[in-house]
Amino acid sequence: MSQFEYIFKYIIIGDMGVGKSCLLQQFTEKRFPEDQPHTIGIEFGTRVCEVNGKVIKLQIWDTAGQERFRAVTRSYYRGAAGAIMVYDITTRSSFNHLATWLTDARNHTNPSTVMMLIGNKLDMAKQREVSFEEADAFAKDNGLIYLEASAKTGQNVEEAFLRTARKIYENIQSGALDLNAAESGVVSNRTRSNRIKAGQTPTNASSCSC
Amino acid sequence: MKTTLEDRVHKIISSEDSCRAIIEVRKTKNSHPRVIAVICPLDSTSHTECALFTFKSRVFSSKLMIRNIVPILMDFKAELLGDGQFEISFQKKNKLKKVGYVCQDVAFLGSFLQTLLNAQQIASSCKFDTLSVATGKSHAWVLARYSEEDQAIKHVYNIIQMNVTGKLSTQDGFSRTASGANAQLSIDPIIVSFLTGAARSEWIHRQLMQREDEFTELRPVSVKICSWNVGAVQGPVSASQLQQWLGKDNDCDLISVGLQEVVKLNTNALMVKESSSESRAWLEAISSAIGVPDKYMVLVSRQYVGIYHFLAARRELLVNGVIRDVQCKAAGCGILGQFGNKGAISIRATVYNSGICFVCSHLAAGKTQVAAESGGSDLHQLSSSSLSSNDGSSIGPDGGNYSEYYPTDVPATIEGHDIIFWYGDLNYRIEAGRQRVLELIQGGSLEELYNLDQLFQQRMEGNVFLGYKETRPNFLPTYKYDAGTDDYDTSEKQRAPAWCDRILWNCKRGSCKQEHYARHELTASDHRPVSAKFNLEVTRVLTDKLSQVGEQVSRSLDHMDNQCTPNVELDIKSINFYDVHYRCTQKQSAMLRNTGQVFVHYRFILDFLKENSAKRWLSIEPRYGLLMPGESRSITFKVRVGDEAARVLRGIKQELQETLVLQVEGGNTLFVSITARCLATAYGRGLDELVTHRYPIRYSGIHVDGKSGKVMPLPKEVWRLAGAIFERGLKDDNIFLKYGEPKELLEIRECVDTGAPFADHLAPASFAAALIQLLRSLPNPVIPPEVRVECVKQHQSKERCFRILSQMPPINLSVLVYLVSLLRELLKHREENKLSPETLALIFSAVLMYPETVDLSVDDPSSEGELMTISDDIEPRADLTKEQAILLHLLRSDG
């Protein structure tokens, strides 16, 4: 009963420098790295938490934001149960690019993937370039859960990750998410055999032979 | 056979270990034999830690090889299936793994399995499990001594991977930094990443137990225990009398009353097990005496033949949910172990978060019970008897996410409780005659009397009631009186007085202090009742604090989990090769470092993106491998554009951009950007394409003349190279025989591709080599395969060959004619250049036709140098090949 019953795979996506890695660190380690280097690749973080009375392990894949890696990064989207899209409320362009990120995510995840939008850097609200209302409207139009958060202060970070987890769990309960589907992004303790492995070779990278 | 096997095993294993049993087996009847052995260390501290080794026999040597090591743990099983077949099973990565074997030496099998079984029993009694292995508490020797065994370590790793990583990293001199959060944790952070499932919750549980003080407080609870062998008095005594015994204005939280002989123990009564009119009467009497229901509430009222057990608690405690999980169970240990003339009724309850058990028993009388067989075993039987009379489900405390990690389950046995009270007519006597006992009583020497008490003696000898306490009764023996009087037994039997009625306790957690221990002067029975009052301190879990601590423990586990994720760093993020020339190798290197705390297996993935795959021109050495924590490795990135790559890359723009994916098993992924400018070359392209370029290839992107439709009669590259040979090399005695200079070849290719004039210093042989290289780089030979096949069929007839060749595509034909005329020109100077038609035929048959005998389809593996060119991979043969014959026709003919 105290073992985790599910593992959810999350991806964090969004422009370079919006604070994806910092959000991950804040959620998993409760700390804010002041000089977080750019992620060039994929980093992992895990945290076991309780959602609706169930012990769930969140396995979070933090991706590189640079445009040039987009093609490679996409192949890591598959099999995500939750996609966390991040923009920086103080950088207009990061919000403007959301449509592209969203299309990308929709194309490379499955229909039941829960999408969450985070407007990061709430601690710097004075320099805000994107209003809450505007982003909220965008989220509503696209059926995203939306929150503004601060990786620095930790405000809403926990809430954002857990809200996504609750939604995924509800989808499991309601049957909207089929656990037996190949890329549900959820591993149940009962179906351990096809568990997600961190660092698993991306699905479209067949065995390398060079 | 057995001795030799043993010798062979001892050659392999460490001299500090010994082989307990050994056998040769096969997986199936026809598979290769294996040797399996039970190995344990010789030293006395760890010799109980056995492991099952599997050895593979080497094909050409008697030397064995360790293939697999399985520590023998509690869950290890070995089962004989008959017919020489047996199966072992053990936990591997949280799964039960079963391996079946066949053994032909059935004679040895029995003793082997017996040894295995013994080893397993030892493991059970020592509680060896995966956690003990993981934490190095057992089987550390396996790793210490056999981690070098490459094969074996992989398998050991599967089973005890946690420990392996821990050890290896220590050996590596890699120091871990424990941050504040995990400094308090008692187990190695290294192993935590592997803690999943049951191990994880077990670990959290242990951590919580260590920090119990932080989320529990002690609560005072007072308990009154009352016991009386009522000797089947007819009807209960009066309420006022009872109050004299049970207390008038009780303020105890719990009152337990145990009666013995509530019914006459005749044969009829023995079979009556449940309630009777007597027990109902007692319930009523006791209830009214202590103030039920205003002050107290009855939790249990239970009769089991002669025994009656009653438990009540103060109302507030029940209302507030302090007392939970009340269960009751009776056990008989009378005649045949079935009848209830003797036995016990136990009641258990959870008070706050402590388990308290009340056992009211009536043990066998007489001296016999002193003997271990009787009283001792009765006790043993009772105390170990299961308590789970109910369905076993229990209601846990409300709230608190981590409460499940706290042991709130009802213990399965009496002895599993935190505090136990054991009382009743225990029937122990005083080791002295009636007269002596009476003398001591009269003399007031209760201490001396107590020293003669059988229960006291037995307890001191450690035979019964281990761990239990009793204060010395400072009251007279409670047995045996003439009922209704204050006189000790005056009947014929003249029994010696004894302390039959006793109250003992055993406090394992919390605290328990006895306030008083007394007898009461109720004369209705031949026993006097006794009572005792205790002040306990029991554990109460503060659910809020438990959640906090639980959260901290869980977070620290997550923290370590994340710390233990395999992680590597590469000291560069991108590599630029700038200009890459055809067939020129360029190298760059980078340092890959394992920055994590566990060993990593990395792998570079090249064909990540299918189109424009970098794998044709980029190689990485070593492309995959294992790195210990802190270990670094230099990775070499090598770029080389060969024929195939040149062909593939000719269509795309010169700037190559690739993202190399560096994958770490179970860990992070790094992207490495690779940039290179691939310089366009004529090499690798087909004749059809070459003739469309009027301008040098390098600039063909600028002059898009390929589309003009104008086609040159001959590739200008062939024309230029042949021309240079014609001008400079007709009399050169190295031409077509010596290798070209790599530097010169590069220079010549550059001139060909850029249209620059050839410098004077270039040797004729280099031009010849460049020409051969160009012809070889063609995707299709000058003489296409179908033409070659036809010619080969007709190789004896010069005319027919010519006819076939003349039907080739015009470009191929013109190249062939042009080359043949060059060769003929060379042969005119054979005195100087030492060439013979046969030699040229040999070289050019290969170059122009790619005959099957010579495989030119792949890039030469010795890419380092450019020395290869002409006849290095063509073996001169005494007899002419058919292709050679065709070439000779061409060279000797005038047409």
In short:
The complex is a heterodimer of chains A (210) and B (895). Chain A is an alpha/beta fold and 210 residues long.
Individual helix count of chain A: 6
Q: Low-confidence parts of chain B, pLDDT < 50 over ≥5 residues? A: 150-194, 366-377, 386-401, 853-875
Rounded to an integer in angstroms, the radius of gyration calculated over CA atoms of chain B is 48 Å
Poorly predicted regions of chain A:
191-210
How would you portray this structure in words?
The complex is a heterodimer of chains A (210) and B (895). Chain A is an alpha/beta fold and 210 residues long. Chain A has a single domain, classed as 3-Layer(aba) Sandwich (Rossmann fold), CATH 3.40.50.300. Chain A is built from six helices and seven strands, in the order βαββαβααβαβαβ. Chain A has helices at residues 20-29, 70-74, 92-96, 98-108, 132-142, 157-174; strands spanning 6-14, 41-51, 54-63, 82-88, 114-120, 145-148, 186-188. In chain A, strands 1, 2, 3, 4, 5, 6 and 7 form a seven-stranded mixed β-sheet that branches. The longest helix of chain A is centred in the last third of the chain and has 18 residues, at 157-174. The model of chain A is unreliable at 191-210 (pLDDT under 50). Chain B is 33% helix and 24% strand. The longest helix of chain B is centred in the N-terminal third of the chain and has 22 residues, at 150-171. In chain B, the strands form six sheets. Chain B has a six-stranded mixed β-sheet. In chain B, β3 and β4 (64-71) form a beta hairpin. In chain B, α21 (716-728) packs antiparallel against α23 (764-777). Chain B is of the alpha+beta class. Chain B is elongated. Chain B contains 29 helices and 27 strands. Chain B has four domains: 4-168, PH-domain like (Roll); 218-541, Deoxyribonuclease I, Chain A; 568-678, Immunoglobulins (Immunoglobulin-like, Sandwich); 711-892, Rho GTPase activation protein (Phosphatidylinositol 3-kinase, Chain A). β2 (41-51) of chain A pairs antiparallel with β27 of chain B, so a sheet runs across the interface.
